[in-house]
Amino acid sequence: MDELVWRANVHDHTVTTEALPESWQRLGGRGLSARILLDEIPATCHPLGPRSKLLFTPGLLVGHMLSSCDRLSVGCKSPLTDGVKESNAGGTTALKLVRLGIKALIIEGAPAGERWWVLHLSKAGGRFEPADDLAGLGVYAAAERLLARYGPKVAVSLIGLAGEMGLSAAGIQNLDKDRSPTRIAGRGGAGAVMGAKRLKAIVVDDTGGEPPPIIDPQLYRDAARRFTQALMAHPQTKTYADYGTAAMVQMCNGFGGLPTRNFSAGQFEDAVAISGETLRDLIIARGGDGDPTHACMPGCTIRCSNVFPDASGRQIVSPLEYETIGLVGSNLGINNLDAIGRINRELDDLGIDSIEIGAALGVAAEAGLMAFGDDERALALIDEIRRGTPLGRILGHGAAITGKVFGVLRVPVVKKQAISAYDPRAIKGTGVTYATSPQGADHTAGLTIRARIDHLKPEGQAALSRTAQVNMAGYDTLGACIFASFGFAAAPGAVRDLLRARYGWDLGEEALQVLGRQTLSLEHQFNRAAGFTRAADRLPEWMTTEPLPPTGAVFDVPEAELDALCEEAR
Ligand code: SF4
């Protein structure tokens, strides 16, 4: 089966297929997304306008249920940052796209009217179907209706009310392996682009589809075995299986980098109450739907996800993750996992990024719109988003807009995207990543907290971030989960051999870095064409002057090192 580009035009509702241009063939996931953005989207266009496009590009390794390697990249010009955007998600969408031979799905054009549509993809091709009955529904209700309409085995990518309203923090939700619409491509507003195309959902029926071909099956089996064994033997795999990403709460708190009350402190006095250990104990004690270790996609052996139940055992949300706990928990002074879970559920149903909204609510608290620790008020503000009130729309456009409207100076953003749950004054390598990543502040673009380095010292942080950014851009191009990196790092040559076995390319010993550097270069080029200058590659000024309790740290990595990193990446 040939791997093709599928184009869906939302103006005339045609879906066509075409061969891949030469320059797209050796790319996938985040790298392919960046290449298409550069080739097809005017960098200065309006992200929600007629010349903007929305891209779905599975990673290069997607299709064979290699552990944690079936991720989807969603690409666009970001309505939040106005720069390049790749937001990736687990779940089942990428796997099914690849089984239909779809290397890239490009959604383009300007909708001709106000109606809402579903894009249905299958072996028979693509077609648009009316979906006005789904408009106004939350993600959970819409997903249920779509599964009833199209059958329980399809994959679904869909937006909630946030995407329908064009809010800059809107994401795109994907079904996990248990049909729950909880795997969000959350960052940067891709859901708003989908809403601007009047698409409520994309349904992928892979009936009759097949896994992509492998050129050298024996080499593939050997490399896959080496990778899987290394992954299973890695001590972090057990940590993430037991505690999920929430294991980071106590670790980050220990470093003094846990966002607390709008990033005014780096340690939260109630960190234990919202920690991975407490979360796990609670899930096990409550039973019912609860599951402390859960896979978001078929074949994942790490299973960092979870299902968090209420006191009666009924699912509140899945998964409850570190970033959400950090941004809507400690960052809002909320010390109660049930409250954090309820807020997370509401945000998932709206189809909106919990990191961005957590940061926006922190800024709102600073502005006096809520008291830190008041979870009921946080839920009331989120209800403003659901009702599309002026205040709700301000919050739904993220922390930067919220700060501007209410005159708050302590706004934790880079390139207008909210800083995630690692305060960059205490974890300076990640601060460099926030500042210099073309994506805007994003921990998944190059997290450094596991490095054995003094995170408070400025020396060595730029080099550390550079390595992390290149590697992560490589993994995102492969379609590999950030935690698959434990296995790849411990199985030298596995990336090279998997690519050789599947495609017949030999990218050499540094295959991962070759892909990563290429991807970053394309992204920096897009941002430069969009008008970004060095001024965008900085942390907020207050983070360079305002000491962070209890360490007293400020962000002091020299600006020249930030500039050198970006120059080199281009
Ligand atoms: S490790 Fe977690 S996020 Fe990664 S694929 Fe597995 S369940 Fe999904």
Write the layout of secondary structure elements.
Blueprint: E1 4-9, E2 14-18, H1 29-40, E3 54-58, E4 72-77, E5 84-89, H2 93-99, E6 102-108, E7 117-122, E8 125-130, H3 139-150, E9 155-158, H4 161-164, E10 172-174, E11 183-185, H5 190-196, E12 199-204, H6 217-233, H7 235-243, H8 248-254, H9 276-286, E13 291-294, E14 305-309, E15 315-317, H10 322-329, H11 337-350, H12 354-366, H13 375-387, H14 390-396, H15 399-406, E16 413-414, E17 417-418, H16 428-436, H17 461-478, H18 485-489, H19 494-503, H20 511-529, H21 559-569
Parallel strand pairs: 1-6, 7-12
Antiparallel strand pairs: 1-2, 3-4, 3-6, 4-5, 7-8, 9-10, 9-12, 10-11, 13-14, 14-15, 16-17
Helix pairs in contact: 1-17, 1-20, 6-19, 10-11, 10-12, 11-13, 12-15, 13-14, 16-17, 17-20
Task: Note the main attributes of this structure.
39% helix; alpha+beta; 21 helices; six-stranded mixed sheet; 570 residues
Q: From the alpha-carbon coordinates, what is the Rg to the nearest angstrom?
A: 22 Å
How far do the termini sit from each other? 35 Å
Average per-residue pLDDT, rounded, comes to: 96
- Decide which structural class fits the backbone: alpha+beta
Order of strands, widest sheet: 2-1-6-3-4-5
The counted number of beta strands is 17
Unreliable sequence segments: none
Query: How would you characterize the largest beta sheet?
Result: 6 strands, mixed
Ligand inventory reads: iron/sulfur cluster
Structure description:
It is a single chain. The mean pLDDT is 96. The strands form 4 sheets. This protein has a 6-stranded mixed β-sheet with strand order 2-1-6-3-4-5, sandwiched between helices. Strands 8-7-12-9-10-11 form a 6-stranded mixed β-sheet. The protein has a 3-stranded antiparallel β-sheet with strand order 13-14-15. Strand 10 and strand 11 form a beta hairpin. It contains 21 helices and 17 strands. The protein has helices spanning 29-40, 93-99, 139-150, 161-164, 190-196, 217-233, 235-243, 248-254, 276-286, 322-329, 337-350, 354-366, 375-387, 390-396, 399-406, 428-436, 461-478, 485-489, 494-503, 511-529, 559-569; strands at residues 4-9, 14-18, 54-58, 72-77, 84-89, 102-108, 117-122, 125-130, 155-158, 172-174, 183-185, 199-204, 291-294, 305-309, 315-317, 413-414, 417-418. The longest helix is centred in the last third of the chain and has 19 residues, at 511-529. Iron/sulfur cluster is lined by residues 68, 90, 295-297, 300, 302-305, 481, 483.
